[in-house]
Amino acid sequence: MTTALPCPHGEHDLSIRDVEGHVGYACGECRGAWLPRSYLQSIGLERHFSVERFESLLLAQATSPADLSCPKHCGALQRSQIKGIDLDWCPTCHGVWFDRGEIAKLLAQYRSRQHKGGDDGGLDAGDVFDIADLVSGLFDLLS
Ligand SMILES: [Zn+2]
Ligand SMILES: [Zn+2]
Questions:
Q1: Hey, which residues does 23 pair with through a beta bridge?
Q2: CA of 138 to the centre of ligand 2 (A)
Q3: 16: CA distance to ligand 1 center in Å?
Q4: What's the CA-to-centroid distance between 9 and ligand 1, angstroms?
Q5: Which residues is 24 bridged to in the sheet?
Q6: So what's the pLDDT on residue 121?
Q7: Contact residues for 91 (Cβ-Cβ < 8 A; gap 6+)
Q8: pLDDT tens digits along 29-75
Q9: Are 56 and 127 a contacting pair, CB within 8 Å?
Q10: Burial class (CB in 10 A: 0-12, 13-18, 19+), 55
Q11: Ligand 1 centroid to 29 CA: how many Å?
């Protein structure tokens, strides 16, 4: 766990971020975030988030291989589009990469959903928004 992970976008390394006891990785350069499967699982235990449902959603919405490599050196990431947001994930270790722009979109959707105060009927939307919640915590630590 002490080995630095490279950012999928370049030469720089990701730094370890501890959010409410969950260990994720963030890039201080491009401000993306890498969440390993263990992170998603630990969110799941606390917030009743289903990692399995999220992963099946990623699989069902897969669009194309991403032009990015897994920080854990598994190979190319797979891109999926969920509710207009592109997420890149690793089919081998099941980590998920969030680009900064995609995090911004997630947060915008999250806020408008809170504003409406209800379910918009989207399948598994709550799961995705719960992740946005945690990812925003990750980025609060960076700024
Ligand atoms: Zn980066
Ligand atoms: Zn991987």
A1: 18
A2: 20
A3: 13
A4: 5
A5: 17
A6: 46
A7: 74, 78
A8: 998 889 999 888 887 676 666 788 888 888 999 999 999 999 999 99
A9: no
A10: middle
A11: 5
Distance from the alpha carbon of residue 93 to the mean position of ligand 1, in angstroms: 19
Joined tokens for residue 49: 């988030």
Ligand 1 midpoint to CA 34 (Å): 10
Cα(4)–Cα(21) distance, integer angstroms: 19
Question: How many residues are listed for the chain in this entry?
Answer: 143
Of the bound ligands, which one is closest to the alpha carbon of residue 66?
2
C-alpha 115 to ligand 1 mean position (Å): 31
pLDDT, tens digit (0-9, with 9 covering 90-100), for 90-122: 999 999 999 988 888 877 776 776 666 545 444
Q: Residue 53 is which amino acid?
A: R
Q: Where are the alpha helices (DSSP H) in 1-124?
A: 37-47, 51-60, 100-116
CA–CA dist 55, 139 (Å, integer)? 23
**At 97, which amino acid appears?**
W
